[in-house]
UniProtKB/TrEMBL annotation:
This is F-box domain-containing protein. It comes from Collybiopsis luxurians FD-317 M1. It comes from the Eukaryota. InterPro entries: LRR_dom_sf.
Length: 451
């Protein structure tokens, strides 16, 4: 035995290799005693030093292999120091202003979702807050993170402890947004809340309390009274006290009402528009009869207008009320009950005109006395379902439009027509003849003019 070790040395000084690698490694030395054992027939003086080192290395190699395998199989603990060192990486020493901009870029396009049906309060903001305490403190201390678009949907309207969580999350989000930063809000619910729907009432009231921050508001409801309920909440506080009916930041208002039975009170819309000095974009449902309410003093600042249906004898009345209008999208137009004198309008601001449907009910001569010299984009669709019994009426409506374009002497950059394949090719060519345009698309395909 090696003179430095002695017989009293414990034979469990090193673990067995077979304990880790299996029985196929049983030929390896069992204890550390064997590693340092010198051949019995050789005197230490006769064994060259290099030869002794070689033998020791040969005996220790199996244990080196076992140790390497252990490190490989238990690498997770060794990664902990690296994880801790990651907190000293450059991203953790960035100035707060730069880190804020980075997080805002990550959140670009995100929204807050508050759904009572699925009990959702979802947004990437909550995920980022869970990354580390620094990000959490940064997000909580900056109101701008809480001004992401809010999508609020109340479907069932049934109160429960779960829907209370949605209500509380909505209130917390609104309170963290401060009192001055603009908000983009989408509200969807079926009907005005009943006494048993306290949760919905409280949510709408919470939204109404931040009306001074509304920049974009989209409301989709089933009946008009639900829309009116929302703005009744705006006009009263928690105790029913009258508050200022003013929307200083509102730039975009979209109103969607499914039911065609009820009609939206023009006086309410007029009150909203008058008290929204920055309003530029407006979307109105079919249940609103536009002609009776459009007054130049109220809609003079609009630049974009979408109407599901226009009730009136002439678009001149509409354009006269909106002198700065650049984009007009009319899904349908039918004769109204107005008897006002038809004005002659030379509208220089309108650039884009979209007519969603022309059918036999469409108002005849609706473009009379209207000129659009700077019109650059025109998109028109016909109601092909009525062609078989009203072919002549539809062609007359198209000719009214064609006459206005020619008299306006505008140069169209693009001209789109849909469903013209239901009209004879001769009538299509006749309609397009003489209309100056750089691009003409008919039913999704480029229209080749005959030379």
């Amino acid at each position: 035995m090696h003179p430095l070790l002695g017989d009293s040395s414990p034979k469990s000084f090193l673990p067995r290799a077979s304990d880790f690698l299996g029985s196929e490694h049983s030929a390896y030395p069992e204890t550390s005693m064997d590693i340092f054992e010198v051949p019995r027939h050789s005197s230490p003086a006769k064994v060259p030093e290099m030869e002794l080192l070689r033998q020791i290395s040969e005996y220790t190699q199996p244990y080196d292999d076992v140790i390497a395998l252990l490190h490989e199989n238990h690498a997770q603990p060794s990664e902990t120091p690296g994880y801790q060192q990651s907190f000293s990486s450059p991203i953790y020493v960035l100035p707060t202003e730069i880190m804020t901009e980075i997080l805002l870029m990550v959140l670009a396009g995100e929204e807050f979702h508050f759904y009572d049906l699925d009990l959702h309060c979802v947004c990437e903001v909550y995920i980022l807050m869970g990354v580390c305490s620094w990000w959490r403190e940064l997000i909580l201390s900056h109101p701008i993170f809480w001004t992401l678009p809010i999508d609020f949907f109340w479907g069932s309207g049934a109160d429960s402890s779960d829907t209370e969580a949605v209500r509380d999350a909505l209130k917390a989000c609104l309170s963290r947004s401060g009192s001055t930063l603009p908000l983009k809000i989408s509200v969807r619910f079926f009907d005005a809340p009943s006494p048993s729907q306290l949760g919905l009432s409280e949510c709408l009231l919470a939204l109404a309390e931040h009306k001074s921050q509304w920049q974009e508001l989209t409301v989709n409801v089933y009946e008009c009274r639900a829309f009116e309920y929302l703005f009744t909440s705006v006009n009263s506080g928690n105790l029913g006290l009258e508050t200022e009916f003013l929307f200083p930041l509102l730039e975009k208002l979209e109103i969607g009402i499914c039911s065609r039975v009820s009609s939206l009170r023009p006086s309410l819309l007029s009150k909203i528009v008058v008290n929204s000095p920055r309003l530029r974009t407006l979307y109105l449902p079919r249940s609103f009869e536009a002609t009776s309410t459009f007054r130049k003093s109220e809609f003079k600042n609009l630049t974009s207008l979408t109407l599901e249906c226009y009730f009136g004898r002439s678009f001149g009345c509409l354009l006269e009320a909106c002198p700065l209008l650049q984009d007009l999208d009319v899904r349908d137009f039918v004769p109204g009950s107005d008897h006002q004198e038809l004005p002659s309008i030379y509208h220089t601001h309108l650039r884009t005109l979209t007519i969603g449907r022309i059918d036999p009910r469409s108002t005849p001569n609706v473009w009379q006395s209207v000129r659009l010299p700077n019109l650059t984009s025109l998109k028109v669709a016909i109601d092909y379902r009525t062609l078989h019994f009203s072919y002549g009426d539809i062609c007359n409506r198209l000719n009214d439009l064609r006459r206005m374009i020619l008299l306006s002497k505008c140069v169209l950059q693009e001209l789109h027509f849909d469903h013209l394949h239901w009209i004879s090719q001769i009538d299509v060519v006749a309609f397009l003849e003489g209309i100056p345009t750089k691009s003409c698309i008919v039913d999704g395909l480029p229209f080749e003019r005959a030379d």
